Amino acid sequence: MRVKFSKEDFNIASNPNTITLIQGGVYKPATVELKAAANSLYGKATIKNQTNYSNITIQLGGTSFSTKTDIQGNYSIDHIPIGTYKLKASYSQSADININNIQIKAGNATSISNIYIQPCGNISGTIILQGISDYSGVQVALDNTSYTTYTDKSGEFLLSNVMVGNYMLTASKLGFDSYSTSNISVSINKTTETNSTELQDTTPP
User: 173: closest CA among 205, 142, 127, 131?
Assistant: First the structure.
């Protein structure tokens, strides 16, 4: 007979030799090592308004497992130990896509449904404040979005990884009039520069 050794999430191992049991005898096999089962992850990632989906980086957080998509957006990662992972898809000038709780189970190839990458650009500009020389702390936000930042001492700001589209921008700071401008257009891999603007002091004389 042959003896097999098994444990959940490990590959089955067996003694390569035929075992003959003698009545009253005790069988003591050589040390057997069970190796953790390794599995694969595969799927597809695409980019809005593009036909070449290559060079999207797919990575499992906290590990060295990483790959890039081919021109069709296909990817696969092999020999992944059993466990739960966070997947990150990243592409130049685009917001990262994070997917939590990726389950790698014994005996299964895990598939992730289409990952959709939104191309991004940036918005930059300068906001100054009437009557003072320190222009920091002006809030700059794109209306009806989560994109927001603050100016530095020179009044400069940068909104990074903004999805391609048209936006209304509002600049505001306590004690000063707010300023809004519409039709801020963001293009892929480009930085849109807005006009320099001065916020008027509203402090009573």
Answer: 127
Which tokens belong to 192? 């849109």
Instruction: Return the DSSP state at 187.
Output: -
Is 71:142 a contact under the CB 8 Å cutoff?
no
Decide if 121 contacts 184 (C-beta within 8 A): no
Per residue in 81-113, pLDDT tens?
Answer: 999 999 999 988 788 899 999 999 887 889 998
pTM of the model: 0.61
Q: List the structure tokens of 197.
A: 């603007």
Structure tokens at 146: 């989560």
Give me the residue label for tokens 């939104």.
118
> What is the token pair recorded at 185?
């257009």
Distance CA 151, CA 192 (A): 16
